[in-house]
Each structure stands twice: as C-alpha cells, then as structure tokens.
Write a structure and sequence with these properties.
By secondary structure, the chain is an alpha/beta fold. The protein has a single domain (2-111), classed as 3-Layer(aba) Sandwich (Rossmann fold), CATH 3.40.50. Helix content is 49%, strand content 10%. It has helices spanning 6-14, 19-26, 35-45, 56-62, 72-78, 87-99, 108-111, and strands at residues 2-4, 30-33, 66-68, 103-104. A four-stranded parallel β-sheet has the order 3-2-1-4. Helix 5 (72-78) packs across helix 6.
Length: 120
C-alpha cells in the first residue's frame, strides 16, 4: 500500500502521472490521509484546480482509495517532524510515519526527511 500526497492523487485520478509514478501505483493499493480531501476542496475553492468529487469517474477512483484517519498519534507526530511545511503536508507525512506506509510525493522538503518512509 502507498500513501499518496494530494497532487499525486489528483494526477492519478486525471490519469496524468509521470510514467515512473504510474509504474509504482500499478502494483499497489492506494491510500491517503483524510486531510487530502480537505486540501483538494480548498484548491477547488481557491480556483487553483478543477476537480469534481461528484463526477462519476472521479468518485469511482476515490471510492477505492483507503483513507487514513487523523488521530492523536498522527497529530502528535506531525509536530515532531524533521522539517516544517504547511499543516496538510505535515499531516500527510505523519500519516506515513504512524501507519508505516511509504509516501509517494514530489515535495522536495518532505523528500529530504529522514523520518518519513518514501515510495521509490
């Protein structure tokens, strides 16, 4: 199972992933932190992306993704990372640490972390 960051999930749903990421996702189950739903909604609200949760094809893909909750362990871990970023990214990274799930992200700051298990 892989934990996808927000932009990787968006590109996966749109089928616009780079070949290297597509190859990783082909053989694994997808999961996300629950904060990813909020981040996508905010990006839509701010008109930074067009994304429709109610679109039948989008919903079909999203409904197959495992969603990890933000519990007290994730919240606590998000404050003990070896990097600083926006809160959503910190929660996404903490989710990977707490649940032991490799994170697929393009974020250069997160990719420098020695704590976050990364998908390669």
């Amino acid at each position: 199972m892989l934990n996808l960051d927000t932009h990787v999930l968006i590109d996966a749903v749109r089928n616009t992933l780079p070949p290297s990421e597509s190859a990783l996702l082909l053989d694994d189950e997808w999961s996300i932190s629950s904060i990813v739903f909020w981040e996508i909604a905010k990006l839509v609200q701010l008109e930074r992306i067009a994304f429709d949760f109610d679109d039948r094809d989008v919903a079909r893909v999203i409904d197959q993704v495992h969603v990890w909750p933000i519990n007290r362990d994730v919240a606590r871990t998000s404050t003990q990372l070896d990097f600083r970023s926006d809160p959503a990214d910190e929660l996404i990274a903490a989710t990977s640490i707490v649940y032991g799930i490799p994170l697929l992200t393009r974020d250069r700051v997160i990719r420098q972390s020695k704590l976050v298990p990364l998908a390669t």
